[in-house]
Amino acid sequence: MNNYHFDLQTDMRGTGCCKWDKAGAQYPFPFSVADTDFRPPVEIEEAIIQKVRQGNLAYGIYPPAFHKAIKSWYERRYGTKLASKWIRNSPGLIVSAKLIMEAVTRVGENVLVMPPVYFNFREIVEKNGRNLVESPLILAQGHYRIDFEDLEQKARDPRTTMMILCNPHNPIGYCWPKEELAQIAEICSRHGVFVLSDEAHADIVYNGAKHTVFLDSCEAAKDNCACINAPGKAFNINGLYVSYAIIPNERIRTAYDNAYENHHFDFSLLGAEALIAAYEYGARYVDELDEYIEGNMRYLDEFLKTNLPKIRMVPPNATYLAWLDFRDCGMNSQKADLFLKSAGLVLNRGDLYGAHGDGFMRFNVACSRTVLEQALEALKNHPSHL
Ligand SMILES: Cc1ncc(COP(=O)(O)O)c(C=O)c1O
Fold first, then answer.
1. Distance in Å, CA 92 to ligand 1 centroid
2. What HEC string does the chain produce?
3. What is the 88 CA–ligand 1 centroid distance (Å)?
4. What is the CA radius of gyration of the chain?
5. 294-320 pLDDT per residue, tens
6. CATH for 18-41+283-380, options being 3.90.1170.30, 3.10.129.10, 3.40.50.2000, 3.90.1150.10
7. Among 120, 176, 319, which residue has the most ligand 1 atoms within 8 Å of its CB, making it the best to mutate?
8. What is the residue-averaged pLDDT of the chain?
9. What is the reported pLDDT for 267?
10. pLDDT class for 385, splitting at 50, 70, 90?
11. Which of 142, 312, 331, 360 could form a disulfide with 350 if both were Cys (CB 3.0 to 4.6 A apart)?
12. For residue 201, which of 179, 226, 234, 235 has the smallest C-alpha distance?
């Protein structure tokens, strides 16, 4: 029996919600910003309300239950044992990524990524004087794979000191198998390249996939990586700015601590309460969410195959982000964007994720089935339909 009602669409317009009050103010179907449309579990709401009712919104003391909740979630969900001392809080994954990059690399050094990939990786690398080096994923017969030979060649360059991995991978919606993560870990460790594994979408896996925390991929990984994560994506609480970094390597952890202090970051009291409630009570919510997303992905795939077969979907097994290929429609991302908008849909342009993403669009399907159906009908009935 399902306890959560992801079929109920809450109207978020007029609430100051970025997805619905920006793109959603102009178009009926905003599918761009990577939030879900789903109400967080009631235990999160209650934890926040309780804190507010206590009248305590002053500077807080770090709640000891924060680390405990993360450790317990990692053991139950991913089978990974963490030491408390490895865990550091952070106001956001990209904040952590930047601090870790500053701790590990120097200006002028190379940071390796595998595009098409989350666009903020490029931002933090290039805005901070490092060079972005790309080892593009290879798309063959509708599936992406890693070009390990190319990756090793780029990792071998002595100027390459870090890799930012997206695990699971946004925007292609893919959960990397453990063996491939181990292969990345071994290559990087062989060539002195530190791995930052961004695991923002770790909880959203389906179609039989299982998330591997990078530090658990093999022996070589642990001391040569940091993993960053948050409950924001799965529980739809990105606006609370609560996330964390897991850094087993003591030297990198100390550098992270110094940078954190230097920036005068602290923690969000309400965010910490939300994380504790999410990880303590949210397992069932995530199980049902994953099932719902899998259903939406299947619906989208079947709808496209039946009605709009020139739009091809890369088969996902993680994230609520579908990666759609418009190249057979004779469209680059710019044209596809205009076409979709003229039918009332806003997706993210694929070229945001690097030149290799041109001709693709990223579709966030974390909405009710009804909204998905309405949007796809609008697309099908568009006068210049494909
Ligand atoms: C892979 C990935 N990392 C990081 C983020 C952003 O995280 P934060 O807002 O905590 O910086 C996103 C958001 O879409 C994401 O998809």
1. 8
2. CCCCCCCCCCCCCCCCCHHHHCHHHHCCEECCCCCCCCCCCHHHHHHHHHHHHCCCCCCCCCCCHHHHHHHHHHHHHHCCCCCHHHEEEECCHHHHHHHHHHHHCCCCCEEEECCCCCHHHHHHHHHCCCEEEECCCEEECCEEECCHHHHHHHHHCCCEEEEEEECCECCCCECCCHHHHHHHHHHHHHCCCEEEEECCCCCCECCCCCCCCHHHCCCCCHHHEEEEECCHHHHCCHHHCCEEEECCCHHHHHHHHHHHHHCCCCCCHHHHHHHHHHHHHCHHHHHHHHHHHHHHHHHHHHHHHHHCCCCEEECCCECCEEEEECHHHCCCHHHHHHHHHHCCEECEEHHHHCHHHCCEEEEECCCCHHHHHHHHHHHHCCCCCC
3. 17
4. 21
5. 999 999 999 999 999 999 999 999 999
6. 3.90.1150.10
7. 120
8. 96
9. 86
10. low
11. 360
12. 234
Return d(Cα 101, Cα 285) in angstroms, integer: 33
Tell me the whole-structure pTM to 2 decimals: 0.97
Residue 236 has which token pair? 């739809």
Q: Is residue 1 scored above 80 in pLDDT?
A: no
Intervals of CATH 3.90.1150.10 along the chain: 18-41+283-380
Query: Given ligand 1 and candidates 32, 93, 101, which is best to mutate, with the most ligand atoms within 8 Å of its CB?
Result: 93
Q: Is the per-residue pLDDT at 155 higher than 90?
A: yes
Q: Percentage of residues in the chain with pLDDT exceeding 90?
A: 90
First-to-last alpha carbon distance for the chain, in angstroms, is 39
Q: What spacing in Å lies between the alpha carbon of 200 and ligand 1's midpoint?
A: 6
Is 206 close to ligand 1, i.e. is its CB under 6 Å away?
Answer: no
Residue closest via CA to ligand 1's atom 2 equals 200
Q: State both tokens at 112.
A: 């390796």
Q: Which atom of ligand 1 is nearest to the CA of 319?
A: 16
Q: Please give the pLDDT value at position 10.
A: 79
Report how far apart, in Å, the C-alpha atoms of 202 and of each of 169, 279, 293 are. 9, 13, 14
Portions of the chain given CATH number 3.40.640.10 = 58-281
